[in-house]
């Protein structure tokens, strides 16, 4: 049992999909973070904003069409979550608001995002709802993680096939364009040779 638990722990540490970032948000500025996500993916985020008196920070989560998935004004510390409906590019934006009469100071923004398996609360909601033991919860998490890895590999293979098809199509078009260019050059050279020959004959420079 101890060996099995250690293996689960090591495997879990090697496959954690957590993204953490910290940046400065300039006064009356906006900074957005973008990422492509598949459909039906759960995304959660923990944010913390440094406190600056008189200044406020808002955040919003949008897709490429401008649809707002999550939004909140005057934030300091909290969480957000959403589930993607389609494959799209999503962005999380933080915007600073400073009164005109006040000199602005940059905020420090800390953001930790999780997606897919790591965003699910297995120990809490899933474990209590199904009344699973800790080992069963870990096995369920590893099963979902394995499925996610298989889906990622399938997506990578699909993209590789699309890129290969695009590459082959581009190579074919370049080859045809090169052949067409060579034919044009040969035709132009032949026409120029015949024209010069007629010209020299007309001037009686050659027989």
TrEMBL record:
GO terms for cellular component: membrane. Pfam families: EMP24_GP25L. The chain crosses the membrane at residues 174-196. SMART domains: EMP24_GP25L. Residues 30-141 form the GOLD domain. It comes from the Eukaryota. InterPro entries: Emp24-like (IPR015720), GOLD_dom (IPR009038). Residues 1-20 form the signal peptide. It is found in: Membrane. Keywords: Developmental protein, Membrane, Signal, Transmembrane, Transmembrane helix. It is a single-pass type I membrane protein. Belongs to the EMP24/GP25L family. PANTHER family: TRANSMEMBRANE EMP24 DOMAIN-CONTAINING PROTEIN (PTHR22811). This is GOLD domain-containing protein. It comes from Gryllus longicercus.
């Amino acid at each position: 049992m101890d060996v099995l638990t250690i293996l689960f722990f090591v495997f879990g540490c090697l496959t954690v999909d957590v993204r953490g970032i910290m940046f400065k948000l300039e006064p009356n500025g906006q900074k957005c973070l973008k990422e492509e996500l598949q459909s039906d993916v759960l995304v959660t985020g923990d944010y913390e904003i440094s406190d600056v008196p008189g200044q406020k920070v808002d955040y919003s989560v949008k897709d490429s069409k401008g649809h707002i998935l999550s939004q909140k004004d005057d934030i300091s510390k909290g969480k957000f979550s959403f589930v993607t409906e389609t494959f799209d590019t999503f962005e999380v934006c933080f915007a600073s608001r400073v009164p005109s009469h006040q000199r602005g100071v940059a905020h420090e923004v800390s953001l930790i995002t999780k997606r897919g398996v790591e965003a699910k609360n297995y120990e809490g909601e899933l474990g209590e709802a199904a009344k699973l033991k800790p080992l069963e919860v870990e096995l369920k998490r590893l099963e979902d993680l394995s499925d996610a890895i298989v889906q990622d590999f399938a997506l990578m293979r699909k993209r590789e096939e699309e890129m290969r098809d695009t590459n082959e199509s581009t190579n074919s078009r370049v080859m045809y364009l090169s052949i067409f260019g060579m034919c044009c050059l040969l035709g132009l050279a032949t026409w120029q040779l015949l024209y010069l020959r007629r010209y020299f004959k007309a001037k009686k420079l050659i027989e």
